[in-house]
Design a protein that fits this description.
The complex is a heterodimer.
Chain A lengths: L1 E4 L2 E4 L8 H8 L18 E4 L2 E4 L12 E3 L8 H9 L9 H8 L8 H7 L11 H10 L3 H9 L1
Parallel strand pairs in A: 1-5
Antiparallel strand pairs in A: 1-2, 3-4, 3-5
Helix pairs in contact in A: 2-5, 5-6
Chain B lengths: L8 E3 L4 H10 L4 E3 L5 H7 L6 E4 L9 E3 L5 E4 L4 H6 L1 H6 L1 H7 L5 H4 L4 H7 L6 H7 L3 E6 L2 E6 H4 E3 L2 E2 L6 E7 L7 E7 L10 E7 L4 E5 L6 E2 L1 H8 L4 H11 L10 H18 L12
Parallel strand pairs in B: 1-3, 2-3
Antiparallel strand pairs in B: 4-5, 5-10, 6-7, 6-10, 8-9, 11-12, 12-13, 13-14
Helix pairs in contact in B: 10-11, 11-12
The chains are: A alpha+beta, B alpha+beta.
Bound molecules: flavin-adenine dinucleotide and FE2/S2 (inorganic) cluster (2 copies).
């Protein structure tokens, strides 16, 4: 099975129905992508498949064939977003963080708070209560003044 | 217990013809589209299938087309993200865009397909009430040919559909512009996204009002008695009483039958109230 992983071509030997999540962690040794629920609910396993966020616990590796897969390890140009999670209190235990960062990296610049909430609705966090996460995303992705102010509450 | 992936076979046809031939000759095969229902079942160990047919290479079944007569042809593999963002759908059937944006979060919308939503035949399938209210038709295909089945006749019973073992859905067709009338869509659940509906409602107000609901019976259904009451010009409370005959909700993990009856009645009243003025209003968003 060949695909592009974080910009580099890779070939893995795995059964076609194996979850992309397991192939990334086991065959590829990239353990930044987490398993939270294994049923599509929590978004901890979010990766980009040809640029679109998907739950890798629900994707057969066969569907990655010939595609571009981006994991948290390969996310480039989002240092500001990642730092904002630290400075704004967007991460506590951290299990949800890679999924949130990968999903947030696809939000359009200047997204309103509502658009951020809708865009991240597929990601669950059991620790932060979300306020810190929305603050971090608003701080890094623009969002305009009103989104930042609203996210502060 | 989780099903071991190494025990699962995957056939990957390159064309619809090949897919259909394998469905007949290599049965039983479980079709695999976006996998958002199937992988949940595999992860729980509740999916009995061991051999799958991958639909992802069937390019002919992708995409959404606006027909000359204004109707829509939605390929089986169209995802809810595509439907959500499609200008033609927004124009012809905005209620379907509204439903699409409430089906799971972005990660689910990017993978979940319209055919998977119908074939999975959950009573809570959120696209179903909209398709029912639009009088949509499902195109079923096998090596023997194509059958066109109205969505209202596609759901036979709890998680049972009109699909024959060797048939696949190739498209969902929405006949001529369904826009005559004012549309209303609302999903009631615990969360805007990522929550299975407690009740989902779609209504069109026109000369012949059309009303469809999900999560209020073994299948998504048209509320024919309530429709007839409204078409006859009866007061909305008469339609609300008729609606209670149309639906048969149950108690489950998410809700009670009593609550669902109460919410369904409230949605019918709200539908009628909000569509009272003849001005075309945009479909309600939360
Ligand atoms: C976290 C989460 C949230 C969800 N939220 C919602 C929600 O809010 N609303 C909602 O309605 N659903 C929801 N779902 C359910 C699911 O995402 C949808 O039902 C989806 O549309 C299924 O499509 P799929 O392509 O992923 O199907 P798959 O999992 O690939 O297949 C589902 C079923 O359809 C069959 N099938 C697929 N394509 C065809 C075809 N062309 N012909 C014949 N049979 C076919 C398969 O064999 C299987 O039985 C959710 C799921 C998850 C995991
Ligand atoms: S582990 Fe994939 S969504 Fe929770
Ligand atoms: S920081 Fe612990 S789950 Fe989000």
């Amino acid at each position: 099975m060949r695909f592009t992983l974080n910009g580099k071509p890779v070939a893995v030997d795995a059964p076609p129905m194996k979850r992309l999540l397991d192939v990334l962690r086991e065959e590829c040794g990239l353990t930044g992508t987490k398993e939270g629920c294994g049923e599509g609910e929590c978004g901890a396993c979010t990766v980009l498949l040809d640029g679109a966020p998907v739950n890798s616990c629900l994707v057969p590796v066969a569907h990655a064939e010939g595609a571009k897969v981006t994991t948290i390890e390969g996310l480039r140009g989002h240092d500001k977003l990642q730092r904002a999670f630290v400075t704004e209190g967007g991460a506590q235990c951290g299990i949800c963080t890679p999924g949130f960062v990968v999903a947030a990296s696809t939000l359009p610049r200047g997204a309103s708070l509502e658009a951020v909430q809708e865009g991240l609705a597929g990601n669950l966090c059991r620790c932060t209560g979300y306020a810190g996460i929305y603050r971090a995303v608003a701080a890094a992705r623009g969002g305009g003044k009103s989104a930042k102010k609203k996210a502060k509450r | 217990m989780k099903t071991a992936a190494s025990a699962l076979h995957l056939l990957r046809p390159e064309s619809p013809a090949q897919a259909l031939q394998w469905m007949r000759e290599r049965a039983p095969l479980q079709p695999l589209a976006g996998g958002t229902d199937l992988y949940v079942a595999l992860n729980f160990g509740t999916c009995p299938a061991r051999a799958f047919l991958d639909l992802s290479r069937l390019g002919a079944w992708r995409g959404i087309k606006v027909e000359r007569d204004g109707g829509l042809r939605i390929g089986a593999l169209a995802t809810f993200a595509e439907i959500r963002d499609h200008k033609g759908v927004a124009k012809a059937l905005p209620a379907l865009c509204a439903a699409a944006r409430e089906i799971g979060g972005a990660q689910i919308q990017n993978r979940a397909t319209i055919a998977g939503n119908l074939a999975n035949a959950s009573p809570a399938a959120d696209s179903a009430p909209v398709l029912l209210a639009a009088d949509a038709v499902v195109e079923l295909v096998s090596v023997s040919g194509v059958r066109r089945v109205p969505v209202a006749e596609f759901f036979l019973g709890y998680r049972r559909t009109a699909l024959q073992p060797d048939e696949l859905i190739q498209a969902v067709v929405i006949p001529t512009p369904p826009r005559a009338g004012q549309w209303y869509f609302r999903k009631v659940g615990t969360r805007a996204a990522n929550a299975i509906s407690k009740v989902v409602f779609c209504g069109v107000r026109g000369p012949q009002p059309r009303i469809a609901l999900g999560s209020v019976g073994p299948v998504p259904l048209r509320a024919r008695r309530a429709e007839a009451a409204l078409a006859a010009g009866e007061p909305v409370e008469t339609a609300v009483a008729a609606l209670q005959q149309d639906i048969a909700p149950i108690d489950d993990l998410r809700s009670t039958a009593e609550y669902r009856r109460f919410v369904a009645a409230g949605l019918l009243r709200q539908f009628w109230e909000r569509t009272a003025s003849p001005v075309r209003r945009p479909v309600r968003r939360r």
